[in-house]
Amino acid sequence: MAIKLSKAEKKVQYDKKLCRLLNEYTQVLIVAADNVGSNQMQNIRKGLRGDSIVLMGKNTLIRRCVKLHAENTGNKALLNLLPLLVGNVGMIFTKGDLKEVSEEVAKYKVGAPARVGLVAPIDVIVPPGNTGLDPSQTSFFQVLNIPTKINKGTVEIITPVELIKKGEKVGSSEAALLAKLGIRPFSYGLVVLSVYNDGSVFSPEVLDLTDDDLITKFANGVSVLTSLSLAISYPTLAAAPHMFINAYKNVLAVALATDYSYPQAEKVKEYLKDPTKFAVAAAPVAAAETASTPAAAAEPEKKEEPAEESDDDMGFSLFD
């Protein structure tokens, strides 16, 4: 027979469990649990079993436990969890890949009807088509200004209608109509709000970044840093190559405009004095490229044909 614990004993047990999890795990997903049923929660726990643990509880109790544990252990980074514990939220402690765990949590969503007074998380659009309702039900559509017609003894919606907008509360007429049409427009499950990773807190959108996204962002940052360094003439590792090249261009320009010279500038001066050298140097390269092309390789060799003797060679023309 199970022994019933008092509220104080339950709090002590909860505190021990939370402290153990905080010591054992460094990764935590803060999730919203609005409109999530007990059966759905049980399925989520089963799906995450192995390297993740779902912990729900009262925010005041969790905050108190986190504060005391941070003071006792000296791990002040745990205090970053406190601002995240707002509303109907829970914590998923995990040792697995954060993105994979987040994707696994997103799988357990359950469709739900539109209840009166519920704030719509998405836009609800009623598609056109036959509803299967008899003509006596047209009053619902008239109240909501939905254009209909009677087709073969049933009500048919003519055009798609945006019944409820995101963020609006569901009214009694909208809820009744959706129920009659058998439409369950909403789906609920645990939603990841924030990610805690060894003291750092960031948005779950960061988990969707790929290696290509990171490389692109890094390249953009280096480009901005280089432009700023060049604009204010402040040397940095990113701007140094461009500064050296620009300085060399200035020195070369001075050497070309004056009698001053150095070995690297001699060749440029020589080419400027005799531009034909450019063509001589480029001709072998162009010939090599032409010979290496498939068209040139496939082109058959043309045999030289002996020139035909003309009438001029005979000493008279065609009109003589």
UniProtKB/TrEMBL annotation:
The family assignment reads: Belongs to the universal ribosomal protein uL10 family.
Q: Which UniProt keywords apply?
A: Ribonucleoprotein, Ribosomal protein
Q: Per the database record, which ranges form the Large ribosomal subunit protein uL10-like insertion domain?
A: 114-183
Q: Which GO terms describe its cellular component?
A: cytosolic large ribosomal subunit
The alphabetized list of GO BP terms reads:
cytoplasmic translation; ribosomal large subunit assembly
Superkingdom:
Eukaryota
- Return the annotated region ranges for Disordered: 291-320
Please identify the protein, giving its name as recorded: 60S acidic ribosomal protein P0
Which Gene3D superfamilies does the entry mention? 3.30.70.1730, 3.90.105.20
Annotated transmembrane regions: none
Function per UniProt:
Ribosomal protein P0 is the functional equivalent of E.coli protein L10.
What GO molecular function annotation could you give as one example from this UniProt entry? Answer: large ribosomal subunit rRNA binding
